[in-house]
Structure formats: C-alpha cells, structure tokens
Design a protein that fits this description.
Blueprint lengths: L1 E3 L2 E4 L8 H6 L34 E6 L1 E7 L4 E7 L8 E4 L3 E7 L9 E3 L23 E7 L4 E6 L12 E6 L9 E10 L7 H10 L62 E4 L8 E4 L5 E8 L6 E5 L4 E6 L2 E8 L2 E3 L4 E7 L4 E8 L6 E6 L41 E10 L4 E4 L10 E3 L4 E8 L5 E5 L4 E3 L5 E2 L1 E4 L4 E7 L5 E6 L2 H5 L3 E6 L2
Parallel strand pairs: 2-12, 3-7, 6-11, 12-15, 14-22, 23-26, 25-33
Antiparallel strand pairs: 1-2, 4-5, 7-9, 8-10, 10-11, 12-13, 15-20, 16-19, 16-21, 17-18, 17-20, 21-22, 23-24, 26-31, 27-30, 27-32, 28-29, 28-31, 32-33
Length: about 525
C-alpha cells in the first residue's frame, strides 16, 4: 500500500420531434455521427497546440499506450484493449493547478482519442474527434496538455465509437493541496460492466441492437416499432457471453407508464456476463485493507457503458461528501445510485472484520464486489452476498445539496435552450430534440452568458447526461455536477456559466445511446 501524504491510496490489488422521425433520419454507415463526433468536412485540427507551464507551475507527465492485451479479470481471461496492459488503466494524479501533459502512443488496430471526463480544460485537449481534434491513427501519437483547475475525482476514456466498453478507462484524481485531509486511507473504486473478449465485441452488440436481433423472442411485440420506451424484458443469458438483449424487467404497462422497476425503469440495453470493481470479478475480488477505526475516503467511479449501479458497504453507512468532484453537504446513506459517468466521494469509519463492498447493476442480473478486511480473521463473503444496506431505498445523487463553496453565483439565465432526450428501442435510434447528432441544431452561446438547458427525458429509460468542458448547477438546488442521471420522463433544468470558449459535446453517457445519436453540440459564437 503506497503512502500519499498522510493518507493511503488503494486502487485494487490483483418531445421535440417524434420517435418515427428520429428513426427515419438515422443512418448506419461507417461515418454515422456517434460517440466519435461526426467528421467535419474540410476541418483539420493538427497535432494540438503547444502548452508551456506558467512560472512555478508543476508539470505532471505521462506516456499512455493503448494496445491489445490479454487480461485476467480474476478467473476469466480476455483479449481486450487496455491502457498500458491493465484494467483499469494507470492512475494519473495531480494537484489542482498543475499542468498535465500526456503523450498518447496509439498501438491499437484502430484510431482513438482520450477524453478527460469532467475536467474543465482547453477545447483542443477534450478528445472528441471531428469536433476538437483529428482522431489519432494507429501507430501515431498525440500530446494532450491541460491545466486541471478543480480538485476532484475524474476519469479518462476514449471518445471513439464504443471503445469505452472495452478496457480503455482509468481514474484521474486531482488533489486539493490545501485540503486538511481528515481521513486516514483512500480507496479508488472503479465500476464496470464487462463484455469484451467473452464471445462478442461491443460493435457486434450494437449491430444486433440496430438490426433488431436484440428484440427477438418478444412474442406478440414484433409490430411495436416507434414505441418510445427503453428495454422491455429480459431474454438474455448469463452463460458467459454478452448479448444485445434488453436487460430490464417489464414492470409497467405499455400505455405510457414506466416499464421496469422504480426509480429508473429500464436502465440498460445490454446483458453483461461480468461486473467488475477495479478490474476483478466478485469470485476473486479486489481486497481493501485498513485498520479498525480508521476513517477512509472512497472515490467511486462508474466507468460502465450501459449500467447504473447501486453501491453499499456491508455493515456500514456511507457519508457522501462530493459529487463529480464538487463538495456537497455531507449526507449519510446506506446505499447510493451511480449513473454511467458519475463519481461520488464518501467517507466511512471502518469496523473490525470482513465486509463486502457491493455494486448491484440496476435492473440486471449479477453484481460487482470488493472486500474490506480490517482483521486477519473472518470468513470472506460469498460472491453473491447482498448486504442489508441494499434492501431499502438508495440515495439518488441529484437529491444532494451543494456546499456553499460549490455554488454558482446567483444570476438569471441569458439563454435558455431545450434539450429533449428522444428515442426508441425498435428500430434502435436515439437523439436529442428529435434528431440524431449531426442532424440536430447545436446550442449557440456567447462567452460570459449564463445558459440554462432544459433537460427533458421524453423516454421510458434513464439517461445520464454529461456536458464537456464545463460544470453545471441544477437549477433548483444549485448542486454542481458534470453528469446527471435523469429518470424516465423527468425534467431537470441545469445552468452553465459560458466561460470556456470552444465547440463542446453534450450527450447521454450510455455509450450505446450516444453512438446511436443521443448527442448535441454546445457551440460558442464569435
């Protein structure tokens, strides 16, 4: 266990437009706008601007090599794509205000980029091909350089196709050097749903979703195209192979009512054979070690492509302290929901014994698990254990209240824009404001404006919504975030200070929905 300052870190041991119109304007060719960002004809970005440190600025440097690797997930051995041969990839750690410089050496058999999820950085470093940079070709390199302004828990991943649903993700921690550090140990816990190398690739799963083969077996429902809902029943097998089948259970009628369990309805499209904490399956879990009575900080990252997780630490309550890097009023809970792309920090005073940290995939079968051990004695928990903390209601992050230090200044919005999340399962098509990315109009803003985005989920499925290059405040509470989970049919206005000039992506962080078109550009006007 490595020492960091006075603490220890452990990162694992071993309605605008109809659904029919949306489907009609969705294409399936190789240049379909998707999570890559659409190629912009005639627009070239070069190799990125040179960034030099200011006087006295510390520089954190890293060479990052995405490549094909064979990885042991704790029993299952898979061929996948990784950063530096590990899942998760290497932790990058810096202090707020540091210059981070990462040289990407692309050894993948495909083009790629890196997106620094949640960081308010310069536009050229954001990693969206066709919008902020050219994709990095196989065998080529690219240097990302940016100042990390805000302390917090972040992560990095590609923004090309479905590469996030391989092994290409890793934590990025930005420390506050002035923080008093009222905890003794720290654990970074990265959650994932795993498909790659189990018999199918993410690209095959998306192809099946688009072709409709993921809807086979739905007797009496073959004519229900254009229906505005998420997944409609579990037909997938958990026999070790991922399938493109809807993964929720049918918990409501077809008459406009929510389908699937509360509060998120049908929360995912893909049945996964494995769920991981720090790259390990629950039969060979990551070990978290501490001494009884120690106060531990948990940095929990949902890096999954298609899965909302509900987390709990057996025998303990969690006190939530930060959401997407920003301080909240400390809130005690037994369990917590995390949407894809969300991060939460919590503190806990650990007891004597052996305890499971469990991440249950919402509406799916299976779970991820790590094990807290504060004593050499005690029987390890079974891989299928469900702590009592998961039997009651869990906290939804958007219910938190911000710390006063995290609030945006009070101000009326200068610009208001609709962001209607639209889509359907059959045919598989998702978009914003009635059209897929590349065919919907960007939100136009000017520097210095306060911008209100009226997020409206017009589907019967949950969507985690992420804004690049900025943080936002929930208009009601002022809670600061960069990714927020919208329940089915939920409306949630957010407010942004337009203080970071560029062309920025906003999108659903279900990577399959994003790749199918649920993305929207936020564009600064000159």
């Amino acid at each position: 266990m490595s020492i960091i300052s006075r603490r220890t870190l452990l990162l694992g041991l071993g309605g605008a437009g109809s659904a029919a119109a949306l489907a009609a304007c969705t294409t399936t060719g190789p240049n379909t706008p998707g999570a890559t960002g659409a190629p912009t004809p005639g627009r070239a970005f070069g190799t990125g601007p040179a960034v030099t440190p200011t006087r006295g600025q510390r520089v954190v440097e890293k060479v990052l090599t995405p490549k094909v690797s064979t990885v042991d997930l704790g029993g299952p051995v898979v061929s996948t794509w990784t950063y530096d041969d590990s899942v998760p990839g290497p932790l990058i750690r810096a202090n707020a205000g540091d210059l981070i410089r990462v040289r990407l050496d692309n050894q993948l058999p495909a083009e790629t980029t890196v997106h620094w999820h949640g960081i308010r950085l310069a536009n050229a470093a954001d990693g969206v091909p066709g919008l902020t940079q050219d994709p990095v070709q196989r065998g080529a390199g690219y240097t990302y350089a940016f100042t990390a302004p805000d302390p917090g828990t972040y992560f990095y991943h590609p923004h090309v196709g479905l590469q996030l649903d391989r092994g290409l993700y890793a934590p990025l921690i930005v420390d506050d050097p002035t923080e008093p550090g009222t905890y003794d140990a720290e654990w970074v816990l990265v959650l994932d749903d795993w498909i790659d190398g189990t018999g199918r690739t993410p690209e095959q799963v998306l192809a099946d979703l688009k072709s409709g083969t993921g809807m086979t077996g739905m007797t009496g429902m073959s004519g229900m195209t254009g229906m505005d809902h998420g997944s409609t029943g579990s037909m997938g097998s958990m026999g070790g192979t991922a399938t493109a089948t809807p993964s929720g259970s049918m918990g409501g009628s077809m008459g406009g009512m929510q389908m699937g369990p509360e509060p998120f309805g049908d929360a995912g499209d893909v049945t996964y054979p494995h769920f991981l904490v720090n790259g390990r399956v629950p039969t060979a879990p990551t070990q978290l070690r501490a001494r009884p009575g120690q106060r531990v900080r948990l940095r929990i990252i949902n890096a999954a492509a298609d899965t909302i997780f509900t987390v709990a630490l057996g025998g303990h309550d969690l006190t939530i302290t930060h959401s997407d890097g920003f301080a909240v009023q400390p809130t005690r809970t037994r369990a917590l929901h995390l949407g894809m792309g969300e991060r939460y920090d919590a503190v806990v005073t650990v007891k004597d014994g052996v305890f499971p940290f469990v991440a249950v995939p919402f509406g799916k079968t299976g779970q991820a698990m790590a094990v807290l051990r504060t004593s050499p004695n005690g029987t390890p928990p079974a891989a299928t254990v469900r702590p009592d903390e998961l039997t009651g209601p869990a906290l939804i992050g958007s219910q938190l209240q911000p710390a006063e230090s995290a609030r945006l200044a009070a101000r009326q919005p200068d610009v208001t824009a609709p962001v209607a999340l639209t889509g359907q399962m059959s045919p598989y098509a998702w978009g914003i404001n009635g059209a897929p990315y590349g065919r919907n109009d960007p939100v136009l803003v000017r520097h210095g404006q306060r911008v209100r985005l009226n997020l409206v989920n017009q589907t019967m499925m949950a969507h985690p919504y992420h804004v690049h290059g900025h943080t936002f405040a929930l208009a009601g509470s002022g809670l600061r975030k960069d990714t927020v989970l919208l329940r089915p049919m939920q409306s949630l206005p957010i407010e942004i200070d337009a203080d970071n000039v560029g062309s920025w992506m906003t999108h659903c962080h279900n990577i399959y929905h994003a790749e199918a078109g649920m993305m929207l550009e936020l564009r600064y006007q000159q």
